[in-house]
Specification:
This protein is mainly α and 307 residues long. It contains 10 helices and 4 strands, in the order ααααββαββααααα. α3 packs parallel to α9, α4 runs parallel beside α8 and α5 packs antiparallel against α10.
Length: 307
């Protein structure tokens, strides 16, 4: 049986300094957009610092837990966190985290796969490919919405879940069409939670569009509610990864310091921006992440291969 531990590896000063800078930048995004930042932190640790994929995922979730907690505390009294909605969505998300983390551990122990004649670490290659697919979908979805609405938020925001007559409906104070179906919300939480456990994302990159377009929250409230969901999911994911030995102690400490500082500044700025500006900025961040991860995948797949 595995014993709970926080793994301490011999990372160099460059690795630790790089981890601090990455978490500082990602912390700003956490406060600004209400996302955990795992969609950037995990691939950056793997691509730039060559941290093993399982360690990057586990350590990333530990940092996200602290970052999102700082962001929530900064938003106290702002009215941008719907606790009731977050707790209901978390009933599915937490179950999803457990399943996703178990799948990650299983894939971590698989032998390498061969792609285009090159041997690849199964977990690293699979996670990077999943990031490109997920982030491309989110970016395209949000861009089409901005085009349809000419960059302006609608006069009344009504999410898809408000139009679904499936199972019981619950009212939430943060919504303009307050009663929405519960079952789709819980199922969305389960799917996002599974990706959290598998890919090391806090889930905010997916929760933000779900809360805005499917649930019907305004962007500022979606950012705050997303932070609470990110914190709940990443807290469980961190505990599971500590048990599996996938959290590096020293790297976690320096990244928590950088992430907390960045989150404070990002939250202060995020509370001053309008919804359309938040969403447009978020799309640019997603495109940068897709370009970076896609480039790494291309090198892994084709780079250096003899003709």
């Amino acid at each position: 049986m595995m014993r709970a531990e926080i793994r301490v590896m011999d990372f160099t000063i460059i690795t630790l300094a790089g981890g601090f800078l990455i978490s500082l930048c990602v912390g700003v995004l956490t406060g600004l957009f209400g996302v955990g930042g795992g969609f950037l932190m995990t691939p950056l640790l793997i691509i730039l610092l060559r941290v093993p994929a399982a360690i990057a995922i586990g350590t990333d979730l530990a940092v996200i837990t602290i970052n999102s907690m700082v962001g929530i505390l900064k938003r106290r009294g702002t009215g941008t966190v719907d606790v009731k909605l977050a707790l209901l969505a978390a009933t599915g998300a937490l179950l999803g985290v457990i399943g996703g983390q178990r799948l990650m551990v299983y894939v971590r122990d698989l032998p390498p796969i061969v792609v285009q004649g090159r041997s690849q670490n199964t977990l690293e290659y699979g996670v990077m490919l999943a990031f490109v697919v997920v982030l491309s979908w989110v970016a395209a979805f949000m861009y089409l919405d901005l085009r349809v609405n000419a960059g302006q938020a609608p006069a009344k925001r009504v999410g898809l879940f408000a139009r679904i007559n499936l199972g019981p409906r619950v009212a939430f104070a943060s919504l303009e069409e307050p009663r929405i179906a519960v079952l789709p919300l819980v199922l969305a939480g389960a799917l996002i939670g599974a990706l959290t456990g598998l890919m090391g994302i806090g889930g905010g990159v997916l929760w933000l569009p779900v809360l805005v377009y499917l649930v019907g929250q305004r962007a500022a409230k979606a950012a705050g509610t997303s932070l609470l969901l990110v914190w709940l999911s990443s807290l469980l994911g961190t505990a599971l990864n500590i048990t599996s030995g996938n959290v590096n102690g020293w790297l976690c400490v320096v990244m928590v310091a950088g992430g907390a500082a960045g989150t404070v500044g990002g939250t202060h700025l995020g509370l001053r921006l309008t919804g359309p500006r938040l969403r447009l900025g978020f799309i640019f961040v997603l495109l940068a992440a897709i370009f970076l991860i896609g480039g790494r995948l291309a090198v892994m797949t084709f780079g250096g291969r003899a003709p």
